[in-house]
Amino acid sequence: MAWWDIRPLFQELSSRRLRNSAMTGAHFSSINFPLIDTNNEEEFRLREDQLGSHTMRSHGYAVAKTHMHDWIILLLLVLIDIILYIIHPFYRFVGKDMMADLKYPLKSNTVPVWAVPVFAILLPIVIFFVVYIRRRDIYDLHHALLGLLFSILVTAVITDAIKNAVGRPRPDFFWRCFPDGKDVYDKWGDVICHGDKNIIKEGHKSFPSGHTSCSFAGLGFLSLYLSGKLKAFDRKGHVAKLCIVFLPLLFASLVGISRVDDYWHHWQDVFAGGLIGLVVATFCYLQFFAPPHHPEGWGPYAYFKMLEELQGMVQAPNAQNGSEAQVENQEACMGLSLTENQNSTLEDELESGRR
Questions:
Q1: For residues 99 and 5, what is the distance between their CA atoms, to the nearest angstrom?
Q2: pLDDT for residue 30
Q3: Is residue 249 part of a domain?
Q4: Per the CB 3.0–4.6 Å rule, which of 102, 184, 285, 314 could disulfide with 173?
Q5: Does the pLDDT at position 164 exceed 80?
Q6: What is the pLDDT of residue 4?
Q7: Tens digit of pLDDT for each residue in 24-69?
Q8: End-to-end alpha carbon distance in the chain
Q9: Residues 76, 207 within the same domain
């Protein structure tokens, strides 16, 4: 082949190299680095936002619908507690020799009945919403509300059921039964009350203390909630966190003490009520949240479960894209090797033409 005939071969070789370089750049820009692509970057940012923000508007209905049966159970507990409040308690035998411990003066409540739901339910709910405004996590808000209401209602049902079954007289029972101070007994020595029926009925509901049990159920739950949010048991020794955690328990204890001071309850009633409230609050809290000393104790179980599911959804497409990219890389490398072979053949032809 003459030297003036090799120009077409040079042109063909140059065009092939340009096509191969363009193909290689296109492949490696989208295969080896898929997250650099604008669409992939926006999709990743969207998923990242979904992992961090779950508001009442975006996920509230879905979360509540998932726990619809729990809310129905709460309504049943309300109905059961109303029935327990209406029915009469057990009227146990009260003899004349027992009146020595039941002649305390009839006083009004230092802590009214209406005040218990205010500080045992409304106060924790306000704190839950403050945390929600800061974190924007509907899972935390929903499960805190659900756990608190379960704690209060389960405690109320247990307390009223025991009250009706035991029928222990209050320390001021004498003045409830005999408002004029004239005691009357039947032939067996049992009291014959002539006071107001509702006041007498309430006088047989001393054990356990309902004020105390509900106070510890609500404020005890709040104490556990705060200890988890503040990470009180992070082993860093910040005593200020414990002071905040103990405040609700102190307030609940003062409510129990007021019941003894008002002669509405014996000390055993208050102790039993506080124990019932704390135990139920602990069980209800651990039903939705990890223990406060746990590394994930600052959030509900459902939140971390949701994060795992969303992270799995994010990782699955990336793994699929990675496998597809690997296959395309292999195909590109095979194409490059074939092109190099063709280029080497053309170079050999050129060399032979020069000769």
A1: 131
A2: 39
A3: yes
A4: 102
A5: yes
A6: 47
A7: 444 434 333 333 334 444 444 444 444 456 665 656 577 777 878 9
A8: 8
A9: yes
Which ranges of the chain does DSSP label H, i.e. alpha helix?
A: 7-31, 38-52, 56-66, 68-86, 115-117, 123-135, 138-166, 173-177, 197-203, 210-229, 239-261, 267-288, 301-354
Of 136, 183, 138, nearest to 306 (Cα)? 138
Q: 137 - beta bridge partners?
A: 54
Annotated catalytic residue, options 265, 266, 293, 294: 265
Among 82-96, 106-120, 124-138, 318-332, the range scoring the smallest mean pLDDT is 318-332
Indicate the DSSP class of residue 120: I
Do 332 and 285 belong to one domain? no
CA atoms within 13 A on the CB side of 64: 12
pLDDT 10s digits, 258-275:
999 999 999 999 999 999
Question: Does 280 share its domain with 222?
Answer: yes
The CA-atom distances, in angstroms, between 144 and each of 72, 230, 248 are 17, 15, 16
| Domain extent for 354 | 315-355
Annotated catalytic residue: which of 211, 238, 266, 293?
211
Instruction: Write the CA distances from 259 to 13, 107, 110, 198, 212, integer angstroms.
Output: 100, 10, 8, 19, 8
300, β-bridge pairs: 289
Any domain includes 328: yes
The number of domains in the chain is: 2
Same domain, 293 and 336: no
> For position 298, what pLDDT does the model report?
76
Contacts of 131 (CB under 8 A, 6+ apart): 140, 141, 144, 229
Q: Which of 55-59, 240-244, 272-276, 337-341 has the highest mean pLDDT?
A: 272-276
| Closest C-alpha to 109, from 276, 255, 267, 272 | 255
265 is catalytic: yes
Comparison of pLDDT for 92 and 312, the residue scoring more: 92
Residues 230 and 324 grouped into a single domain? no
Identify whether the C-beta of residue 206 lies closer than 8 Å to the C-beta of residue 265.
Answer: yes
